[in-house]
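How a chain folds remains the central question behind the approach discussed here. In the encoding step, the backbone of a single protein was reduced to a row of integers, each denoting a local shape. We regard such an encoding as a compact summary of how the chain folds. The sequence in question and its structure tokens are set out directly beneath this paragraph:

___
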Amino acid sequence: MNLSSVNDTLMDTDDKSIHDVGNQTEVERYYRILEVSTLSIAIVGLVLTPVAIYAVSSLVKKDNVAPIFVINLLVSDIIQLCALTLMMTGDGIVLSISAFAYTIGLVASVGFMLCIALERYLLIVWPLWYRTKRPVKMCLLLCAAVWTLPLFYLVFSIVMGLNEQIDLFLNITVVLFLLPLPLLVFFLVGTFRALSASISVRAEEKRRIVGLLVLVLLIYTLLFLPCIVYFLVHSSGYEMPVVAAIFLELNPVADLFLYIFLRKGAVNQVWFCLCCCRKNRTNCHVIQWFE
């Protein structure tokens, strides 16, 4: 599941299904939209992600290992962004290598999203067990495992491709990418129930924990599921693969917002800004009404 497969869908078309739009064909128009959006997302992501990594690194503590998972997630995002840029500008061997790198970054990204949700769940639901298991050591082992899994997936994809089992490979990929969704929901519901019954956790801390899990779930649901649906329905049109690809490419940029729910006080500041904006909007409506 990567951008190269979407590009193949756009380029591998029947000549009869292509309609002229001005001086460009419909396929060329959609490919141009995909190219511009990809490069724009890559530029924004490559500028902001290193800044986010530096900011999150200052939050790493012995009793708070969630930032370590977020840092690894952002590193996987950088791999995706660099690979996307090369996939849009390169060809031949460069295109193949960048497609492999993008797959590694994408699979690792899903793994670290699961690790973030799992760490928050264990911290709240099983706090005694969590604190006695050396969370830093466990975190490093999980990070090593997550970075190893994409390599196995990559080898599996190559073997399936050589055996011309593309349809079977896509079906297995869809199943594998659907599995994190119920897990993320389970971690969110379990954590929310435990926090609701807890009186020792401050309200601001509860908002940060729940907000982090909700954001992870929203990122996966809104940005990953469209691509999964596309591979399930096997749409022959051009709109769906382009939309699915753009949504998937937005994943590295959306991950930047995780910093808000890691830094203490950031949630309250964002909430205060939203309340001020709403209050100003209400005052404007009142003034206009009296005028």
Remarks:
- The chain is about 80% helix and 0% strand.
